[in-house]
Amino acid sequence: MSGDAANDIRQWGRSLFERQQHPVAWAGRVLEAASLSLGRTPEIEAALEMAADPTQWSRGRDLFERVRRSSLDGAERPAEQMLFGLAELVGKLAHNTAGPSPYFDHHAGWQIGPIAYRLAAEVRDPALRNRLASALGSWPTFESGTASEPAGDVG
Questions:
Q1: Cβ distance 5 to 142 under 8 Å?
Q2: Sign of torsion, CA 115 46 36 98?
Q3: What is the pLDDT of residue 25?
Q4: CB burial class (10 A; 0-12, 13-18, 19+) of residue 40?
Q5: Burial bucket for residue 72 (CB in 10 Å: 0-12, 13-18, 19+)
Q6: How many beta carbons lie within 10 A of that of residue 2, not counting itself?
Q7: H helices, E strands: number in the chain
Q8: Average model confidence (pLDDT) for the chain?
Q9: Which of 14, 26, 53, 103 is the most buried (most CB within 10 A)?
Q10: pTM value?
């Protein structure tokens, strides 16, 4: 990916995240879309449960650390690493929303779209790409330099 394309995807990810009214739940939907193709570990299940239950968000740092330990211990394939990365981001966003300081970097959520985009490119499964585009609410199109809204089938 060229420098311009990499910058475009970062900008798209930032814009996408900043439009979310409920970023933790949104991140959970993206993680769920990815996990349907890649499988669910206990850590992924915990992240999905947390994203869906605001009463658990204050435990986001604990979830992040649990997922990080698991991802460092086991996932060797790039797709698995990206799935764990999405789960880590669920933990970060939950903590930033409801946990005590110190908070994670304010731009953590900007990474969700770009990770999902790279995951779709890595796995090359049209069904996964469609699910991710639907969960994200947008899919980048670098040929024109803009992001587009998903219109049914984006594959």
A1: yes
A2: negative
A3: 98
A4: middle
A5: exposed
A6: 8
A7: 7, 2
A8: 89
A9: 26
A10: 0.88
